[in-house]
TrEMBL record:
Keywords: DNA-binding, Transcription, Transcription regulation. It comes from the Bacteria. This is MarR family transcriptional regulator. It comes from Copranaerobaculum intestinale. Residues 1-132 form the HTH marR-type domain.
Length: 147
């Protein structure tokens, strides 16, 4: 089916766009989601961060480590449970977040060029439904695997 192919192409082209656009700031397309999510959810844990974007723990850990090495985030040991680390953005990241948000807006304008407001809203609803369907299928498979 063409839906998978088209979404895959958009995903890869988006990564290429963000890698180029954010290169001067020492952040890649793979870290931007994590940085924005931590910025919007101060104190979020690695586990919550992974769940928020449907990422596996390894990918999340690598992205957080890279952001930490570049000085964009800091980990704070949770006072209630020493096993968990809470994640916070640094001042350096605070200055970068508007740049990332602008890059996202620019990319959105590029890929929705020629679509009117109604078409854009329809597109959002349709892709949201695709994500819901995919999530249900994956959760169903995980549940079956645990049985």
């Amino acid at each position: 089916m063409r839906v998978n192919r088209t979404i895959s192409i958009l995903y890869r082209l988006g990564h290429m766009y963000f890698d180029r656009d954010l290169e001067p700031y020492q952040i890649g397309s793979g870290q931007q989601f994590f940085l924005l999510t931590i910025g919007k959810n101060p104190g979020i844990s690695l586990y919550e961060l992974a769940q928020h974007g449907c990422y596996d723990k390894g990918t999340t850990t690598r992205a957080v480590r890279k952001l930490e090495e570049e000085g964009f985030i800091q980990r704070v040991i949770d006072t209630r449970d020493k096993r968990y680390h809470q994640l916070y953005i640094t001042e350096k990241a605070e200055r970068l977040i508007p740049v990332i948000e602008q890059s996202l807006e620019d990319w959105n304008a590029i890929i929705t060029d020629g679509l009117d407001e109604k078409q854009q809203e329809s597109l959002i609803q349709l892709t949201d439904q695709l994500a819901i369907n995919a999530s249900k299928a994956v959760m169903k498979d995980r549940k079956r695997d645990k049985e």
